[in-house]
Specification:
alpha+beta, Rossmann fold, Tumour Suppressor Smad4, 2 domains, two-stranded parallel ribbon, 8 helices
Amino acid sequence: MMPIIERYFREAHLDYDIYQTSGHQDAITAARKAAEEGFNIVVAAGGDGTVNEVLNGIVGSGAALAAIHGGKGNDFAVSVDMPKEAEAVCRVLEKAEIKMIDLGKVLGRHFINSVGVGFDATVAMRVNRGVRPLNGVSAYIYAVFETLLTYRPVEMEIELGDGTRLKQRPMLVAVGIGRTYGGGMMILPEAIQDDGLLDICVFDQMSNLALAYHFPKVYSGKHVELKEAVLYRSTEIALRLSKQCPLHMEGEILFGNQMHFTIEPKAMPVVVGSMF
């Protein structure tokens, strides 16, 4: 795809530069440098992990974020209707229609789509390590069933912005601005990218057999019909865990036992496709 995009930009006489990342978090530094050099759009050509790194490099700079499909998970690119075909991508980038969407933050790092704590974060760690010879959705599904064999929920105290407090051992807590993660899992089917609110799904503990049976429902959002899945909306949410646990943020894995999620309404300019 990149040779086609480069040729298109060159023939259209657009000012551009291409940078090949060399390792984990390299995209943060490269994106920050691009913004400082005056580029008004910084494109993440990769999966959601690359998007998150580029985001954290350009937050507050005024540069807009764009995403090209190219990794294990492309949930953010899908959420802003970025096409997959190279020529169509070029037209979208050249037109550069900008939409301001909400920006989340937790553990000192920004996110623009979704975060998961608990079972799904453990699954994401397994996927990041590699599930050969699988990739994409098939790797995620395999990791789900592998994780079922050993995962044990931890106790959490959950506090929402309106003062609501919960104490339970949920399978997972998902917090997001976008609707999907994990390559199309509709974990937060009612999420709106620019409403100034975090969407939250607290999925209570259930047996491994029941979870295995109901798991496919997450791809259509039907899991919210289960009594174990409760949705909330809030400007913030605090989690206090009984022990240090993984958190997956758009493909990136962080760890903590005290997590305070906040939102900045319409704080991030992003390049969007035709659906907007």
